[in-house]
Amino acid sequence: IHPIAIVLSISFFVYLILTSAESINVSRVRKEVMLFSSFLILVVIFFIYKKAFFLHGFNVIYQNIPKGILSNFFKDINLIETSIRIGIFPIVFGAIGIFSGFRKNKDMVIILSSILLSIVLLLTFKLMSFSIGLILLGLILAILSALGFERVFAYIQLTKWSKCLNYFKIFMLLLIIVTLIWPSYTGAINVIENTIDDGELNALFWLRDETEEDSIVISLPNEGHYITSIAKRKNVMDTNFLLVENIDIVFNDVIRVYDTESQVKALQVLSKYDVRYIY
């Protein structure tokens, strides 16, 4: 039911191209399942998001994100940043897994490679959120890297270094901890430390307990959900952009309240949206 399901439909198409290039016969039943699944995905997505399709047309793919922050969601692929975020091990051993799987015509490797290629294409043409794309790439490469490890360990056993295989495995485990597990842990700690604190919670509780129920509160978009979920008040904007009309005007108005030096301009915006409180 999430729009990202469209990746699966694209992957089916890429899969058929790859199998054709490798002269692999795909059964009629499998083709029919792919066609039916793709049709079902498109119908369900259109049914759920039909209002957004009618409102934005093809631009719905950009989720109606304001132009001021659109570049934060849809970025150019940067190899260095991608390698740091996903990790060098999943990329290297995932590539080895793809190479060895294609040599043996392993069907599952071709399927996973089709999904991987579809994600890369969508990221290249900025048709997918960069963060979601990296998450999916990381998952697929992690699965494929298992084949890569298997291939590398099997090769070492055929060399004179076979007696050191256990030491090599321990060394690899330590590198994985240093390059993958530890950065993930420190990143999680950083997110926790920068999340909402007690002072902000007290302010939101005050809004909930001391203000009129029909009060409208203005906040930065990324804090808008605090207003609705904790303070139980209506906000001017949050990060649910999809069905907001004139999104750029609303976004610019909200930002103007916080960065303008003119009280008159700020009061004009507050009056426009009938705002009673500023968070």
Could you characterize what this model shows?
This protein has helices at 6-21, 28-48, 50-56, 67-73, 79-86, 88-103, 107-124, 130-157, 165-193, 198-210, 224-229, 247-259, 263-272, and strands at residues 216-218, 234-235, 277-278. Helices cover 69% and strands 3% of the residues. The protein has a 3-stranded parallel β-sheet. The protein has 279 residues and is mainly alpha-helical. The chain is built from 13 helices and 3 strands; from the N terminus they run H-H-H-H-H-H-H-H-H-H-E-H-E-H-H-E. The two termini are 34 Å apart.
Task: Considering the chains and any ligands shown, give keywords for the structure.
about 280 residues, mainly alpha, three-stranded parallel sheet, globular
Largest sheet: 3 strands, parallel
User: How many helix segments?
Assistant: 13
Number of strands: 3
The stretches of 5 or more residues where confidence is low (pLDDT under 50) are none
Please give the share of residues in helix. Answer: 55-70%
Spatial separation of the terminal alpha carbons: 34 Å
Give the overall silhouette.
Answer: globular
**Beta-strand residue percentage:** under 5%
| Structural class by sheet pairing and helices | mainly alpha
Rg, Å, rounded:
25 Å
Q: What strand line-up does the widest sheet have?
A: 2-1-3
On the 0-100 scale, what is the average pLDDT?
87
